[in-house]
Amino acid sequence: MKSNQKTSKWIPKKPWRQKTGPVARGREQAEPGPQKTLERVLSKAGVGSRTQARSWIHARQVQVNGQVVENPDHWVDLDRDRVLLDGKPLTKRKQLYILLYKPTGYITTFKDPEGRPTVYDLIPDIDQFISPVGRLDLDTSGLLIMTNDTQFAERLTNPDRKISKTYLLKCSTLLSDDAINQLRHGVELSDGPTRPAEVTRVRDSGKYTHLEIVITEGRNRQVRRMIEAVDSKVLKLVRIRIGNVTFGDLKIGHWRELQPDELADLATSTPTRIRTSAPAPDSAIRQTNKSRRRPDAPK
């Protein structure tokens, strides 16, 4: 005689997994938060550079959850771990955004082994650590943003956002229209082809061509290498604009805080669309750009 009772299908249990964190009130602790290396946690807190952070860690000045940590690459959970520097907890500092008009002869680093001047020599009155957003090499002048807001800095340097940087430069030779068109459509560099660039012939003077170049990348010495790719060299280079941020009344070697509207524009700006065609005949460009030069623009 058949039974009317239905047989239930056996379902294997999920494998047992040991809980990895402390349990409070019968519930498993929340998932781990974002993690960063200890040296980055210190630098992002605005207390010093990553080089300084490593020196403090090696000097046993840093504790994580009550234990001295001497490894700069120690992983820290930003939500759950407690970090002390010299016995004091890290505190969130006021976010600072400045625009520096960097002269030539200064390097964009905190400390130089060769003893050369750095951009930090130009901001001695700022009492908290801020980092450059991108770099300008020793022989390049112009606009440099510095901040302790690392998320803001990462947004500005993210190549997918295509924040434009505008430069005036003086070439060591006269460039042909063909060479300028190559720059507009991209040239091959050792680390790959460049994106299209907006290139305007400002004027030709004697045996030199003066250009305005707008790029949306931030590779090392990119503008100089682009000019070398068309068989010339850069004699003078000035960054005159970042996004829509310009000098205003800022004098060379001085700095000012970025205005709220400038910050909002940089934070929300859409990717720049680069024009690769010549905007006007060269003769017209030379005439209309005479009034656009800054005092330190290439002569």
Explain the layout of strands and helices.
Layout: E1 23-24, E2 27-28, E3 35-37, H1 38-44, H2 50-58, E4 62-64, E5 67-68, E6 75-77, E7 83-85, E8 88-89, E9 97-102, E10 131-132, E11 140-147, H3 150-157, E12 165-171, H4 177-185, E13 188-189, E14 192-193, E15 198-205, E16 208-215, H5 222-229, E17 234-242, E18 255-257, H6 260-268, H7 282-288
Parallel strand pairs: 11-17
Antiparallel strand pairs: 1-2, 3-6, 4-5, 4-7, 7-8, 9-11, 9-18, 10-11, 12-16, 12-17, 13-14, 15-16
Helix pairs in contact: 1-2
Can you describe this structure?
By secondary structure, this protein is an alpha+beta fold. It has two domains: 33-89, Structural Genomics Hypothetical 15.5 Kd Protein In mrcA-pckA Intergenic Region, Chain A, CATH 3.10.290; 99-292, 2-Layer Sandwich (Pseudouridine synthase), CATH 3.30.2350. 19% of the residues lie in helices and 25% in strands. The chain has seven helices and 18 strands. The chain has helices at 38-44, 50-58, 150-157, 177-185, 222-229, 260-268, 282-288; strands at residues 23-24, 27-28, 35-37, 62-64, 67-68, 75-77, 83-85, 88-89, 97-102, 131-132, 140-147, 165-171, 188-189, 192-193, 198-205, 208-215, 234-242, 255-257. The strands form five sheets. Strands 9, 10, 11, 12, 15, 16, 17 and 18 form an eight-stranded mixed β-sheet that branches. A four-stranded antiparallel β-sheet has the order 5-4-7-8, with no helix packed on it. Helix 1 (38-44) crosses helix 2. It is elongated and about 65 Å long. The termini are far apart. Residues 10-28 and 280-292 have low confidence and may be disordered.
